[in-house]
Design goal:
Helix content: 55-70%
Number of strands: 5
Distance between the termini: 61 Å
Strand content: 5-15%
Radius of gyration: 25 Å
Structural class: alpha/beta
Number of helices: 16
Shape: elongated
Oligomer: single chain
Length: 353
């Protein structure tokens, strides 16, 4: 069985044109997955007669027999051909289909590059026996590449490099602010960068002013802004943000989940710092990959709050969660009451300082 190849090694294979006969591209980072899948497919089918030497198939509808016929067909006036299958979901396939599929991937001819790539399908790596078996079978016969979420540091570097290619200047700190507002999805990040570069123009610097004005704040960012308004005891701003979330028809349960996450960040960072560890210590135990800025923000925003205050706030969030899920009372009233209680807890903490 071949080990999973790295993104760097995969990139080199594409550049050199040294392909295997079988690939599976999977992982959370769909932007890079689609980008590299297209590069591989374009290069693997050769420059000439692409209409004959490239066959794209929808993995949700194509039969294994159709796939096998395409794989076994010889290329036209070319060294090789490419068969690209998008979003094959092995969980949805029958046992007989999977038996045919395993037979196929074990006998792909050298003249064909068979590419499975998953731009939409997500793999449950921990629970799915079918996916584990399929991953193992592809690794035995060919190559698998997993595109994992980038760390915040990697995403910052990529944004700065992309801005430079567009003849714009972007600092690492300001790249971090874009990530804070948009999240760590690269497709969304590059969309926002394109917008900023078009606005400032070539040869100009993208500043915090343009970022604050133009970058779309995602749902999670908006709720984190709500938590900061509460902690700063900004009553009008807190209720204004809550009104905005209701206007946008956001589910109260979803708002509560993200708001609870913000307070959990504060609690974890506070506990780490009190134990003599750094604010980034919780990243060793919880999923903060690509979201390390949340821990730094929690350190910045929560240093003055006691563990008792944070525990009381978490209790209030838990009670609101029970009320929402048991459908006791109007859901908006539950959320407004929660904000009032959290503001009161933050106000009491102020007087205890």
């Amino acid at each position: 069985m071949m080990p999973e190849i790295t993104e760097t090694e995969f990139k080199k294979q594409i550049e050199r044109g040294t392909f295997g006969s079988l690939y599976l591209l999977h992982g959370e980072e769909k932007y890079l997955l689609k980008l590299y899948a297209n590069r591989l497919i374009e290069k693997a089918c050769g420059g000439a007669f692409q209409d004959f030497n490239l066959q794209r198939m929808d993995g949700g509808s194509v039969s294994i027999d159709e796939m096998a016929a395409a794989v076994e067909a010889v290329p036209l006036l070319s060294e090789r051909k490419c068969v690209a299958v998008s979003d094959l979901d092995v969980e949805a396939r029958s046992a007989s289909d999977l038996s045919k599929l395993y037979e196929l991937i074990g006998m792909v001819p050298e003249s064909t590059v068979l590419v499975f790539y998953l731009p939409s399908v997500e793999i449950d790596y921990k629970k799915s026996a079918k996916w584990k078996k399929f991953l193992g079978a592809v690794q035995k016969a060919g190559n698998t590449v997993c595109f994992k979420r980038k760390t915040q540091a990697d995403a910052e570097k990529m944004l700065c490099a992309a801005a430079a290619k567009r003849h714009c200047e972007l600092s690492r700190a300001d790249a971090g602010k874009i990530i804070e507002y948009t999240g760590n999805d690269l497709q969304a990040l590059f969309h926002e960068l394109e917008k900023l570069c078009a606005y400032v123009g070539p040869g100009k610097e993208i500043t915090r002013r343009e970022i604050d004005q133009l970058v779309t704040k995602n749902f999670e960012t908006t709720v984190f802004m709500l938590s900061r308004a509460i902690l700063a005891r900004q009553y009008d701003k807190a209720y204004s943000i809550l009104d905005l979330l209701f206007y946008q028809n956001e589910e109260p349960v979803s708002v509560l989940a993200v708001l609870s996450t913000a307070y959990l960040d504060l609690y974890r960072v506070r506990a780490a710092v009190q134990s003599g560890e750094s604010a980034l210590e919780p990243a060793k135990y919880f999923d903060y990959k690509g979201k390390e800025f949340r821990l730094r923000n929690a350190e910045r925003d929560g240093g003055r709050f006691s563990m008792e205050m944070l525990r009381e706030s978490l209790d209030a969030l838990l009670n609101a969660d029970v009320a929402l899920k048991s459908a006791r009372g109007n859901r908006r009233t539950v959320m407004e009451t929660l904000i009032a209680r959290l503001l009161l807890i933050a106000e009491r903490e102020k007087f205890a300082e």
